[in-house]
Every structure is written in structure tokens, then in C-alpha cells.
Design brief:
Layout: E1 3-9, H1 13-24, E2 31-38, E3 41-48, H2 55-58, E4 65-71, E5 86-87, E6 93-99, H3 104-113, H4 124-135, H5 141-150, E7 156-162, E8 167-173, E9 178-181, E10 185-189, E11 201-204, E12 209-214, E13 217-222, E14 228-229, E15 234-235, H6 251-257, H7 259-266, H8 271-283, E16 287-291, H9 293-310, E17 314-318, E18 334-339, H10 345-356, E19 360-365, H11 371-375, E20 378-381, H12 394-410, H13 414-426, H14 434-448, E21 453-458, H15 463-477, E22 480-485, E23 502-507, H16 515-528, E24 532-537, E25 549-552, H17 560-579
Parallel strand pairs: 16-17, 16-18, 18-19, 19-20, 21-22, 21-23, 23-24, 24-25
Antiparallel strand pairs: 1-4, 1-10, 2-3, 2-4, 5-6, 6-7, 7-8, 8-12, 9-10, 9-11, 11-15, 12-13, 13-14
Helix pairs in contact: 4-5, 7-12, 7-13, 9-12, 9-15, 12-13, 14-17, 15-17
The structure holds 5-amino-5-deoxy-1-O-phosphono-D-mannitol.
Length: about 600
């Protein structure tokens, strides 16, 4: 996690770095810091909490070169001392890092033996001290930094401001780093979104690439062989000028409402564009869908669509549980990685291993030019635009809708899929109406606000929706919510139900499968034990007496499952508003989990 930003050019770096950090805040919001150069002197400002203006920050000399960092604490608590940048003892250079130095303990002991003292508890300061020790050998700064970097174990990316040369150096391994090439100068950041208003031209650095930025010039080289590279300059499809909340009080609500459009953006692929992947699926022995957190639940949903619509042997693997699949995986298998950020360490690790095993890799990612997309033989994008709220909403439905389109295409029903998707998005109108928001906030959430444990039941097409619904409510409201397959109820879960326990049942339309009957009977059983019952799903059941509350959702065949997740997002949102929680930046979480 953590966000890195840098700028060198002819504009004011103080403002550019500050605004860049605000856009990177989703990666970590414990603390932050900025360093700028004035002549040959480094000036820096650090603070804890959110990136915000401060008179002391304004007093930094105006500069054309600077770096900054937003922190998600790994080593050491949230303090100004632990915040980045970490400056060298003589003030000649200052460094920011994204990642985790896994051999931090051993390195720190070694440095202590050599007489080095530490101010912070971070692994970052260890890197600074190794560079200092190297510099004593009278070698160039660049060489010292490269040597120090090679000592680090784990996924680490650093950016350094060197006062003597007036340059920024950055090296990438594992954690992402993108260079932006603009008319006014060179940008450097953990993602391209943070400098999106300034340029669409980017270079995505490979592992062990070093970029040396001098004014408006840059050089990329590989630190392993020391050779200069001619990196590919990509042009981004979209440029996001303003990332703001618009008329909404929070990004989360804005992103929930955007789903009417983003489901269509994610499925804006013609048959020709899907064909290479369709062919690969047809010749694969088995398809594994890989993801973590919300992306892991989308993987489950896509696997469900592939099995039931396209009759493809597909199953999901939680990224962090990949190891037990290694004995059964074969080069004839296809892996489809699901990720919003494209930088999740837990998902990148198995992809590296599966690639070595000879598996083909496909991915559906929201951010452009990311590690996961670049590792893929088949690269697809959800195109849902920036998702700023830490809790994923529009990207989950975008991923699931893309999986539906893919499955329908495999089944020879591409055109039907496109028209059903259009129908779905049109019919979401009602869910985003004032009336629906009022009902969810003032009736349902006001009842839930004092409850501590909730349970969600789904089945078949709604099993992954129950898991995702539970995660969504947990993340922002901090309530204890568990999602279960309704089949589990009688096998243990029902023991948890007592008078007043909220149970939310996801009820599919009775047209297909018997799942709706099972759900209704499950809800009857919990009602008989005094549960507070909420139904989400097909309107035909909204009048049943067993429900205390009911939210009807459009049921367009199996696409009803995608619509069913939206009430959970709204419950999560309004409940957390009532609780006064930090909606867009919930405690302890970061948007992009780039460390293991
Ligand atoms: O960027 P990714 O989609 O790979 O991230 C995976 C998870 O970390 C992510 O979905 C997480 O669970 C979200 N906070 C859920 O809202």
C-alpha cells in the first residue's frame, strides 16, 4: 500500500505533489509527507491524518522538483517521525518507500553493529542508512542507491530526492511505479490516475527498473544488468480531469449511483474483442478465477456464470489460498485474474507461479497499465473510471457483468446478453430514487443501527452476493456481518439466531431453479426463532408476512444477482452515515493492498 508521487519540470512541484497525494490517499491515509528542493537544500513537511493544507506546508520554498508519500503503516505506529520522506543524517537526500523490507530485522541489526542509530521504527529508514553506508565508499549516489536496493528482500519501490544532483531517482520491484511524460515535466507515481489531469502518456516500469529524472529529461535502466532501456510509451484511453464527489456527500454514494453507466462500460466489448479469450477458454482444460476480497467474490460470481451459462469447468481460487492448487494445476489451464487495482500482492504472487507452470493468464482490471494487466496474455478492462471509496462497489458489478457477457458469448448468446444488460441498467432507476434511499436509510438502517451481529443468506447465483454483501457492510459500518449459503443454515448457523437478530435473505425469482423456495423456507425458520427479517430480491415475494422489510430488485434472469448486491451497498452506506463513520476511508483499510 502507500502512495508515491514525484514531479520534476517547470511547474510548481509543491502544489503538484500535494494534489497528487490527495489522489493517492486511497492507498494509505495514516500520515503523509512532502519534500522539495531549494537550491541544494531539501525542505520537508510531514503530518499525520489526511492530506490537507497547513500554514507550515505553505512556508516550504516554492520548487520545481519534489516527492511525496501517503502512508499505510506497516513498521511502526502512526507518528510524524514514522511518516515519509525519511531524510539522510546530513540532509543530502530523502527517500519514500512503498512495500515492506522483509529482511528489515537482519539489516537493522547489521547497521546497528556498524554504529548507525535510528529515529523511526520504519523499515524505510533502514534503506536510508544502507545508502549512507554505501556513500562512504566514495561511489556515486546512483550506485549507492542501486547497491542498497539490491539488499532488500520483498516487494519494494522507492523514490529518492537527491539534493546534490537535483535529481529524482526511483527503483521499482513489486509495488507499482508509473512515469508520466508531460509537456511541463516528468511525473512519477504509484498509479497513473494521480497525474491523469497532466498527461495521458505513461511508462509502466518493470521490476528492477530505475528511472533517473533530471529536469524534464528521464532515463530508464535496469539495475540488474545496468543497461539503459527504451521503454514503451503507452497512451491511456481515458483522462480523468477532476476526481470529485460532484453533488454527492461521499464518493461511495456517487460510485453506487454510477453503476447504471459502469455496468455498460464494462461490457462495451464486441464479439471480436472477446474472441481471443473465448477461444482460449474453449481449448482450456479448466478455468480458475483468481481474486481477493471483493474481487474474490466477483471471481466466484463469474465462475458461477461460466458454469451455469456456458457449461465451462470453472471455479474460483482465493488468491491467498493458491498453494494447495499447485499439485493439480496444469499448463492446459487458464487463469482469469480479477482485480480493481491490478496491483494486489496476494493476486500477483499466484499469477507469477501459475505463469511459470505454463498456464495462460487473462485479467479483468479497472486501472490501466498495472502489473496484473501486463502479466496477462489476454488483457481486459472494466473501464468503470476511478473508484475512490476504499469499499468497492461499481467495480464489483462491472466485473460480474463482464463475466456474464463472456459466459453468454461462449454460449452463443452475445446479442441477448447485451440487450439484457441494457434492460438491467435501465431498471436500476427505481433503486436509486429518493423513495428507495429513504426506505433504506430511515426504515431499515435506523432499525439496524443498534444491532451488532447480522447474517445474510444467499444461494446459487446469490451465494457470492451474500459474501460480498457482508463484506460491504463490515468494511464501513464495523458491524459483525456474516454471509452464508442458505444451505448452511440448518447445519449450524441457525444456532446464532435469537430474538431480534437481523437476517437478510436474498430471494431470486421463482422462474429459475428452486433456490427461491429454499430461501423462503430458511427465512421462515429464522423468523420462527424471532429474527428481524429483511428480504432483498424478486418483487413477487415482497408481500410475504415473514419479512419485516423488503427491497425489491429487478430480476432479469440470472442478472438479478448483480442487481441484488446494490441494496447491500446502500445499507452499508446509510448505516455508516447514521453511525458517523468515515465512509470513503474506513479505519485500518487501504484501497490497494500491495503488500502481503
Ligand atoms: O484491487 P483489488 O480488486 O485486487 O483488491 C482486492 C481487495 O483488496 C478489495 O476488493 C477489497 O476487498 C475491497 N476493500 C473491498 O471493498
Amino acid at each position: 500500500m502507500c502512495g508515491i508521487f514525484g514531479y520534476s519540470g517547470n511547474k510548481n512541484s509543491n502544489d503538484l505533489v500535494f494534489n497528487g497525494l490527495k489522489r493517492l490517499e486511497y492507498r494509505g491515509y495514516d500520515s503523509w509527507g512532502i519534500a522539495v528542493l531549494d537550491g541544494n537544500k531539501i525542505y520537508q513537511y510531514k503530518d499525520i491524518g489526511l492530506v490537507k493544507q497547513n500554514p507550515k506546508l505553505k512556508k516550504l520554498p516554492k520548487s520545481n522538483v519534489g516527492i511525496g508519500h501517503t502512508r499505510w503503516a506497516t513498521h511502526g505506529g502512526v507518528t510524524k517521525t514514522n511518516a515519509h520522506p525519511h531524510i539522510s543524517t546530513n540532509g543530502d537526500f530523502t527517500l519514500v518507500q512503498n512495500g515492506m523490507v522483509e529482511n528489515f530485522d537482519a539489516l537493522k541489526r547489521e547497521l546497528r553493529k556498524d554504529g548507525y542509530k535510528f529515529e523511526s521504527q520504519t523499515d524505510t529508514e533502514v534503506i536510508v542508512k544502507i545508502v549512507e553506508r554505501e556513500l562512504k565508499k566514495n561511489i556515486s549516489f546512483k550506485k549507492a542507491l542501486m547497491t542498497a536496493f539490491k539488499r532488500l528482500e520483498g516487494r519494494n519501490t522507492v523514490a529518492v530526492l537527491d539534493a546534490k544532483s537535483n535529481k529524482i531517482y526511483a527503483i521499482k520491484n513489486g509495488s507499482p511505479l508509473v512515469v508520466g511524460i508531460a509537456k511541463d515535466g516528468i511525473y512519477l507515481a504509484s498509479d497513473s490516475l494521480s497525474f491523469s489531469p497532466h498527461t495521458k502518456k505513461i511508462i509502466v516500469l518493470d521490476d528492477y527498473d530505475m528511472v533517473e529524472i533530471d529536469g524534464k529529461d528521464y532515463v530508464v535502466s535496469n539495475i540488474k544488468d545496468g543497461k539503459k532501456k527504451k521503454p514503451e510509451i503507452r497512451t491511456l484511453k481515458y483522462q480523468y480531469e477532476d476526481i470529485d464527489k460532484g453533488k454527492y456527500p461521499h464518493f461511495m454514494l456517487k460510485e453506487i449511483v454510477e453503476q447504471q453507466r459502469t455496468i455498460l462500460y464494462a461490457t462495451d466489448y464486441n464479439e471480436k474483442e472477446l474472441e481471443p479469450l473465448v477461444k482460449q477458454i474453449r481449448k482450456s482444460r479448466k478455468v480458475y478465477l483468481l481474486g481477493a476480497g471483493t474481487a474474490g467474490f466477483a471471481a466466484g460470481q463469474i465462475a458461477f456464470f461460466l458454469r451455469t451459462i456456458a457449461k465451462v469447468d470453472a471455479m474460483e481460487i482465493k488468491s491467498y489460498e493458491f498453494k494447495s492448487y499447485l499439485p493439480v494445476i496444469s499448463s492446459k489451464d487458464l487463469i482469469i485474474a480479477i482485480s480493481q487495482s491490478g496491483e494486489t500482492a496476494d493476486t500477483i504472487e499466484p499469477l507469477e507461479v501459475f505463469k511459470k507452470e505454463g498456464c495462460k493468464i487473462a485479467s479483468i482490471v479497472n486501472m490501466y497499465g498495472t502489473t496484473i494487466s501486463r502479466m496477462s496474455d489476454y488483457e481486459y478492462y472494466t473501464n468503470a473510471g476511478p473508484e475512490i471509496c476504499v469499499a468497492s462497489t461499481k467495480v464489483f458489478t462491472a466485473q460480474s457483468a463482464w463475466g456474464y457477457l463472456l459466459s453468454m458469448t461462449l454460449a452463443g448468446k452475445y446479442k441477448t446478453a447485451r440487450s439484457k444488460l441494457k434492460k438491467l441498467t435501465k431498471s436500476l432507476d427505481e433503486m436509486f430514487s429518493k423513495k428507495s434511499f429513504n426506505y433504506i436509510k430511515n426504515k431499515i438502517c435506523k432499525t439496524l443501527v443498534d444491532k451488532e451481529h447480522f447474517f445474510i443468506l444467499g444461494k446459487g447465483e446469490n451465494a457470492s452476493i451474500a459474501y460480498e454483501g457482508a463484506l460491504k457492510i463490515k468494511e464501513i459500518s464495523y458491524k459483525h456481518v456474516e454471509g452464508f449459503s442458505a444451505g448452511e443454515l440448518k447445519h449450524g448457523v441457525i444456532a446464532l439466531i435469537e430474538k431480534g437478530t437481523p437476517v437478510i435473505g436474498i430471494i431470486p425469482s421463482g422462474e429459475h431453479m428452486d433456490d427461491s423456495k429454499d430461501l423462503i423456507s430458511g427465512m421462515e425458520q429464522v423468523k420462527a426463532r424471532g429474527a428481524l427479517t429483511i428480504g432483498i430480491g424478486a418483487s413477487e415475494y415482497s408481500g410475504l408476512e415473514i419479512f419485516d422489510y423488503y427491497i425489491s430488485t429487478p430480476q432479469i434472469n440470472t442478472l438479478g444477482s448483480i442487481a441484488n448486491v446494490i441494496p447491500f451497498q446502500l445499507i452499508s452506506y446509510f448505516l455508516s452515515v447514521l453511525l458517523g463513520n468515515n465512509i470513503d476511508k474506513p479505519r485500518n483499510l487501504a484501497k490497494s493492498v500491495t503488500v502481503k
